[in-house]
Specification:
The chain is an alpha/beta fold. It folds into three domains: 3-118, Rossmann fold; 128-188, Orthogonal Bundle (Helicase, Ruva Protein, domain 3), CATH 1.10.8.60; 197-315, Zinc Finger, Delta Prime, domain 3 (Up-down Bundle), CATH 1.20.272.10. Helix content is 59%, strand content 9%. It has 16 helices and seven strands. Strand 2 (43-47), helix 3 (52-60) and strand 3 (68-73) form a beta-alpha-beta unit. Helix 7 (148-156) packs parallel to helix 9 (182-188) and helix 10 runs antiparallel to helix 11.
Length: 317
């Protein structure tokens, strides 16, 4: 089913089951928020990989407690629960990770018993993203001028989360006139032509060694010293560890976001699911390795690039 058709179906029935797949996290998060807004009077429960026993209890009792919204995030990393899902009464949203293989048995089973909505990136080299940028601005009575939307897409790339953030920044900057020109985009929007430290972190959390090395190579071309990179990675790995600790204490992602000063959508869609897959012990091991890298960089014990690349290889194991 098309994504927009699935959104329309949310309005009419509280006993539907949806599975969301595809690489566009923004659309998945938008769908979940739409479900909460359309049914504000029902309880909602959100679960991640590792919560399977609790999920079984909730799914088994769903018919006893009336209307509720149940969200299963990164289902492809959970144990197979498709037989329980078939019997669920209430609104259920199953979210597959961005990298999920839809041909695997677990994915095909869950898709067969739910309405499947694809959350895919738009045509990377077409007009789809610029058109979406213009429509988002028009919702708030803003106007892009002289191809400013094309420049924004060129600078940011095909990521709806990042694009929505930059659109918001531009709206704040041009609140008086409500018109956005190419020079405004040049002044306000950060360039994404080269990989950032965030890209490197994201691929490390995915355990994608190849892409992490590509990101590091891009970073190394513009930086002679790697001290700031080591600090950044250590700083964020500490946040990832704290996310896992808070998750164990059943602290909600919204509260994690306030404590850690991170966007809640990133915690929900990226950091928490990936950290659960990595585990606390691996993150602690990585932080200890970074400390050793930092000491070696300060004392010139080894070639800096080799130190970072060895760290990336060890993290990906």
């Amino acid at each position: 089913m098309k994504y927009r058709d699935a959104l329309k179906d949310l309005q009419f029935d509280r006993s539907q089951k949806f599975v969301l797949s595809g690489e566009e996290s923004y659309l998945k998060e938008h769908f979940i928020n739409a479900a909460k807004q359309k049914h504000p009077d029902i309880d909602h429960f959100c679960f991640f990989p590792g919560d399977e026993e609790e999920i079984k209890d909730i799914l088994s009792s769903s018919s006893l407690f009336g209307d509720r919204l149940i969200i299963l995030r990164n289902y492809d990393e959970m144990k197979d629960l498709s037989e329980l899902v078939k019997k669920v009464e209430g609104l259920l949203i199953v979210v597959l990770s961005d990298e999920a293989n839809l041909k695997l048995a677990k994915a095909t089973k869950i898709i067969s018993c739910c309405t499947h909505a694809q959350c895919s990136k738009m045509g990377e080299f077409g007009r789809d993203y610029p058109t979406w940028i213009v429509s988002k601005a028009e919702e708030k009575k803003y106007l892009f001028l002289d191809g400013a939307e094309d420049l924004l897409y060129k600078l940011v790339g095909p990521d709806m989360f990042d694009l929505s953030q930059e659109i918001h920044k531009l709206m704040l900057y041009k609140d008086a006139t409500k018109t956005i020109a190419p020079e405004d985009v040049e002044k306000v929007v950060g360039r994404a032509a080269s990989y950032s430290t965030y890209d490197l972190l994201d691929n490390l959390l995915r355990k994608d060694v190849k892409k992490a090395l590509i990101c590091f190579d891009s970073y190394a071309q513009d930086n002679d010293s790697f001290g700031e990179l080591v600090w950044f990675l250590g700083h964020y790995l500490e946040k990832m560890y704290r996310i896992l600790l808070m998750n164990e204490k059943k602290i909600l992602p919204e509260s994690m976001a306030d404590i850690l000063h991170l966007p809640v959508f990133l915690i929900k869609t990226r950091y928490l699911p990936r950290c659960i897959g990595i585990g606390k012990s691996k993150i602690v091991e990585a932080m200890e390795s970074l400390c050793a890298v930092e000491v070696s960089l300060r004392t010139f014990q080894s070639e800096p690039r080799i130190l970072i690349e060895n760290f990336i290889f060890s993290f990906g194991k």
